[in-house]
Each structure stands twice: as C-alpha cells, then as structure tokens.
Design goal:
single chain; alpha/beta; nine-stranded mixed beta sheet
Length: 273
C-alpha cells in the first residue's frame, strides 16, 4: 500500500502522466517575437488544381540548403478557420505555427519541406459549431491530400517522413487526414483540435500522435481530445498522448515556440515501409 501511494505521489510530481495524458502547469506565456518578422514572402507561392476542380493556393518552404541525392521530411501545416480564403497569404501570416518553421534557427535545425495549403472553405466541419465534440472531413481535405502527393512526387521528399500539424480547425483537419490516408503520414502534432468520431480510434492506434490542448478552451473544448486519446488507448494504442495545459484557453501553449522538444519527437518518427 505504501508503495502504491508513493507511486501516486511521484506521478503527481511528474505532472500526472497517466493513461496517455500529461498535465502541464506553469508554462510561460507564448513568445511570438521569434516569428514576428516572417511573412508569406519567405515561402514560395504556388497553386494546385485538384481532380474535382478545386483550386488550392499554397506556400512551400524548402530546406535552407539541400544536399544532392538527399531526401527530406515534408511537414504539412494545416491552418485554422481564420485563414480561409484565396489570397495565399493568410495561412502564413495568420498562423504562428506556420511562420515558425521559417525562423532561421528552426529552419537550420529541422531541414524539411513545409507545405501550407490555403482552403477556400472549411476543411473540417463540426457536429455543433457552438460546442463542438466531433469533427468531420469537408471535401476540401481530399484536394489537400492530392496536393501533398503532388509535392512529394516532384520534390526530394522522404516518403517515410511526412508529418502533419495544425491549430484549431487545422488540428482537426490533421486528425481527419490521418484517417483518410494512414498510409501517408508518419506522425502528427495537433493543437486545440476537435477529434473525429471515437469509433475511429482503433484506426489511429499505431499512429504516433501528440495532442496539445488547454483545459480552459471554451471554443474547442478539450473533452473531445480527452475522449479520443482514451479511446485509442482502450483500443490498444500506446503512441497517442494528450498534453493538457492547465488554465490555457483557445491558443497555442507557451512551449510551442521554439518547441524543440516536440519537433525533435516529430522528426524522430518514421513510417514503416
């Protein structure tokens, strides 16, 4: 009994890491200054027409320097609902997570292609816009998946190291993309997402997945992510983790940038051949 009590105390002191959930307290405020000077112009501009005729503007960041014959990871950064449009700028300039990849110190440490499509309409829909609990794929997601295939085919991309990430609607889109193309992605990191139906959890049980979410988020309540991680673990998955940030509202956590801790984890993941 004393050993069990001691183990419980140790777990609490370590941040309550149990059942795939880590409780994170006292994270400093997010410092946006490292990415303040980054604009859409730091990314190459492009446009893609999908098989259904949907036109997706996109931005693409290449590694700062490339070695002949080497293949590089591809990070797909999905934007939030505030960047919906066709100007091919808002998905960069309105999304700190996207801009961060172009910060010189991060670009040097993580040589990769970073693809940031812009959706002309929502890429993920919710069961209840006022209090969402379940996300559903919108037609625009399929267009983005076709774009990813096209970029991976023409650039020196390592097909075993294609990653997805996103905040808010972008995080929801990330989870839906994993379900749509489990053969494509090696791992993903989401922030403040709404999860798909928990009935799909077993399909994610082998996917390395890191989900960041504030427990004070009233726009995209954390309960959706909690339920999905619990369902993945109930299905036998052990590679999904939820980081609950105490007191954090609907915003990226302070340790997202520069965020070497999660980027190191992401880039260490490889999809099996």
């Amino acid at each position: 009994m004393r050993l069990a009590a001691l183990a419980c105390v140790c777990a609490l002191l370590a941040g309550c890491a149990q059942g795939g959930v880590d409780i994170v307290r006292d994270v400093p405020p997010l410092d946006r200054t490292p990415a303040a000077s980054i604009t859409a112009d730091d990314f190459a501009s492009g446009s893609f027409t999908a098989s259904d005729g949907t036109v997706l503007p996109y931005r693409l960041l290449a590694p700062a320097s490339m070695e002949p014959g080497r293949r590089y990871p591809l990070v797909v950064q999905f934007h939030g609902s505030g960047a919906i449009g066709s100007d091919n700028r808002a998905q960069i300039e309105g999304d700190l997570a996207a801009r961060a990849w172009a910060v010189p110190v991060l670009r040097a440490r993580y040589p990769a292609f970073v693809l940031v499509p812009q959706f002309p309409q929502r890429s993920a829909n919710y069961d209840d816009p006022a209090t969402p609990t379940v996300a559903y794929a919108a037609p625009a997601l399929q267009s983005a998946l076709e774009l990813i295939d096209a970029v991976a085919a023409r650039a020196p991309v390592d097909p075993r190291r294609i990653y997805a990430s996103g905040f808010s609607m972008g995080g929801s889109t990330t989870l839906l993309a994993l379900l749509a193309r489990p053969d494509l992605f090696a791992a993903a990191m989401t922030m403040s997402a709404i999860a798909p139906s928990r009935s799909e959890a077993a399909r994610l049980k082998t996917m390395p997945l890191l989900m960041l979410h504030g427990d004070a988020d009233s726009e995209n309540p954390i309960g959706s992510d909690r339920e999905m991680v619990a369902a993945i673990h109930a299905a036998g998955g052990r590679q999904a983790r939820l980081r609950e940030y105490v007191g954090l509202k609907h915003q990226p956590p302070g340790d997202m940038l520069p965020g070497e801790w999660w980027r190191d984890w992401l880039f260490a993941q490889h999809r099996k051949p």
